[in-house]
Design a protein that fits this description.
about 220 residues, Rossmann fold, seven-stranded mixed β-sheet, globular, methyltransferase activity
Length: about 220
């Protein structure tokens, strides 16, 4: 970015995807590559579970992949979208993970019904950019980790320019539907920058060096107490 230019401002998007049509269009998108990469990196990076809490679980694709990969984990998936959770119930049965994945309709910013230190691993994929105040969800995630717990949170990173946004949309969603392209575009505009993510992490006690770029559009918090 040239000197004097102002970085791309953050533009918030809708926090909850809660219409049947939105969820159906979301499920028609191809998330397998990014979900598999999430689980690969999670498992490769250290101990997982056995009690896993997934914040913003959506249709439970990551919990299903995780249960298929690790035989000893049990996952509690939390989401604010009732429609997402209804779809998740079907996906869990189809994925052979019934009994190992539980679902809870709750606000990830205010998880007062969950006991502090109740999770061995707290995970989340692309939740934070939906939130006006991502720190609230990070604070809950840290509270819910036990004393030897692991936090693994991945989200999009806001590019410096609108041109960079369009380049990433064309690269990663160019063959997808117009809906999918617009969803990625809005999400990139709503995401935090890497610096903002590090500042948010530090504000809840996570060291800045636990936050790193892990793709051309994602950063990841991987931290153990």
């Amino acid at each position: 970015m040239t000197e004097g230019n102002v970085s791309l401002p953050r533009t918030l998007e809708t926090e909850v995807m809660d219409s049947e049509q939105e969820v159906q269009e979301y499920m028609e998108m191809d998330h397998l590559e990014v979900n598999t990469a999430f689980v690969d990196d999670l498992v490769r990076g250290g101990k997982v579970g056995p009690r896993v809490l997934d914040l913003g679980c959506g249709t439970a694709q990551i919990p299903i992949l995780l249960c298929q990969r690790l035989s000893d984990v049990e996952v509690m998936g939390v989401d604010m979208s009732i429609e997402m959770l209804e779809a998740a119930k079907i996906e869990i049965e189809l994925g052979g993970a019934t009994g190992r994945i539980q679902l809870e309709h709750a606000d990830c910013k205010q998880l007062t019904e969950f006991q502090s230190g109740s999770a061995d691993s707290v995970i989340s994929n692309t939740l934070l950019h939906h939130l006006a105040e991502p720190v609230d969800a990070l604070r809950q995630a840290v509270r819910l980790m036990n004393d030897q717990g692991r936090l693994f949170i991945r989200d999009l990173v806001r590019p410096e320019t609108a041109e960079d946004v369009e380049r990433l949309v064309n690269l990663h969603a160019g063959q997808e539907s117009e809906y999918a392209q617009q969803l990625l575009r809005q999400s990139l505009h709503a995401a935090l920058t890497l610096q903002e993510m590090r500042q948010a992490a530090q504000s809840v006690g996570i060291p800045a060096d636990a936050v790193a770029m892990t793709s051309d559009r994602h950063c990841t918090i991987d931290w153990m107490r």
